[in-house]
Model the fold of this input.
Amino acid sequence: MALMTKEQYLSSLRGLGHRVFIRGEKVESVPDHPISKPPAMAMAETYQQAEQEDMKALFTAQSHLTDETINRFTHIQHNIEDLVNKILMLREMGRKTACCFQRCAGLDCMNSVYAITYDLDQEFGTRYHGRFADFMKYIQSNDLLPAACMTDSKGDRSLSPSKQEDTDQYLHIVEEKKGGIVVRGAKMHITGGVNSHEVIVMPTRALKEEDKDYAVAFAVPANTEGITFIYGRQPSDMRRLEENRSDTGNLYYGGCESMVVFDDVFVPEERIFMKGEYPFAGRLVELFAVHHRASYGGCKVGVGDVLIGATAAIAEAHGTEKTSHIKDKIAEMIHLNETLHAGALASTGKGYCTPSGAYAVDPLLANVCKLNITRFPFDISRLAQDIAGGLLVTMPSLDDQDNPVIGPYVKKYLVGKSGVDSEKRVRILRLIENITLGTGAVSYLTESIHGAGSPQAQKIMITRLADIESAKSCAYKLCGL
Ligand code: SF4
Ligand code: FE
Done:
């Protein structure tokens, strides 16, 4: 079975038996809990799309490891076209779900670990790459999804991992045993963690020799003893508990992050992909960051499409769509959104082949793309809110429209132009509210700042990667120096 159906995925999640807590309570079935269901459905959509005739070309690929047709979310990219198709696929997913659909963090992680384990073996004579290739075959053949676990809890940010008062603030090896290692620590903001079959752990930063116990990469099943997922709250998440889910804005999907605790987890030898090779910790972090920074120029652009569509729809509902400043603002939103996409596509166009044979995007352009992502979705959201008007945050709930006493008032005074009833207007506004202020804003806004590294991390990389010396020499030549 190289491709799972959406239903097979959902039942695999139900039967996984991993330890998940939401608001202090253990969750029996992640896709059936009202809070975690929309994120599970967003993840499930990555399976659904691969089943659809019109989407197959984009959502499937040929594995270079198994030769089978696999879901593109498990594919090791082997040429520029693969890099481009990933970005296009993520935009399509953003358009379908208007949230973080989570599966690409694992995809970018797999592509990074695949390339770096090859380099590690060349340098140290280790055998990580073959192990990782075996792991990839297992993932691809069973259409599984692993969550990427990178960010540590970090404690005192001014201290290195081994200098922390509590040395578990960074995940590390606490014991070497026959046949494997034992690790302890916690990984934060783990996208789609609760919806994943496996977890892949990577270091979170460049490390020195004194921190070599922290230079560890591995994969284990999500239901491994000692692993606990603690679900992250989001603004307006409790609306999912309401009977009338129309007030959630996005009725079907959502993103999710969780904190993942590793309490003395045993990792068998064959699942270890880095153990103590500290000079490569930073390289792995950077390669993952670069892949994921370009990915944002796919997924966030797709969400941007939905927001632009909802904004154009509300302008129409208000009868303002032909007003010149509204047209100008929508043009501005499109310009910003397509600029984000252009950055991601440019980074694929200048992609390169790593020694492993896997392709990676151009690091400078991927960082430029992500730095724009930390800004433009906020501008696009500001313009959407401007056009939507203040009702966005003052409108009564859809439940009020059903009340026999106040319903007639709400229905009478919330209409738009002729033919636009109050329900239509409120539903569009709720979607804009969701993406710019509610659960969707976690994916579209805050994650755009911090996901795949905060803005300063991109500025550091941009400064390092840009060839300022050659630019200076161009300037010197032209002014006669
Ligand atoms: Fe995928 Fe975007 Fe979510 Fe990252 S932020 S996991 S690229 S949808
Ligand atoms: Fe993300």
